[in-house]
């Protein structure tokens, strides 16, 4: 089942973030996990830093709000995932196209 962009919003039309900063620090830690190192290297190339995870958090919220393609996907057990595809504004001004879940 896929929801529209409007249905995938959190309270008051904002995305829901359970622990702001925690996931962002993990994404930017190259040594966190072997499978996550490529994501960290990618994000670091655009100026994001593990020392300032809130900058990435803000960029991800903006990415969610302005992404041209946002869907809410439900799996067989009822878990939901919000999938966004579109540009994210890097600290250095570039806007790489990303897919976030």
Q: Unreliable segments (pLDDT under 50, ≥5 consecutive)?
A: 1-20
Number of E-state strands: 4
Strand order of the largest sheet: 1-2-3-4
- End-to-end C-alpha gap: 16 Å
Shape: globular
Q: Mean pLDDT, as a whole number? A: 76
Tell me the number of structural domains: 1
Strand proportion: 15-25%
Q: What does the model show?
A:
With 101 residues, the protein is an alpha+beta fold. It has one domain (2-7, 21-100). The chain is 30% helix and 20% strand. The chain contains three helices and four strands. The chain has helices spanning 22-28, 37-45, 53-66; strands spanning 2-3, 69-74, 80-87, 97-100. It has a four-stranded antiparallel β-sheet, with helices on one face. A hairpin with a 5-residue loop joins strand 2 (69-74) and strand 3 (80-87). Helix 1 (22-28) crosses helix 3 (53-66). The chain starts with a strand and ends with a strand.
In a nutshell, what does this entry contain?
With 101 residues, this protein is α+β, with helices and mostly antiparallel strands. It has helices spanning 22-28, 37-45, 53-66, and strands at residues 2-3, 69-74, 80-87, 97-100.
Helices and strands in order, then pairings?
Elements: E1 2-3, H1 22-28, H2 37-45, H3 53-66, E2 69-74, E3 80-87, E4 97-100
Antiparallel strand pairs: 1-2, 2-3, 3-4
Salient structural properties:
101 residues; 30% helix; disordered N terminus; 4 strands; alpha+beta
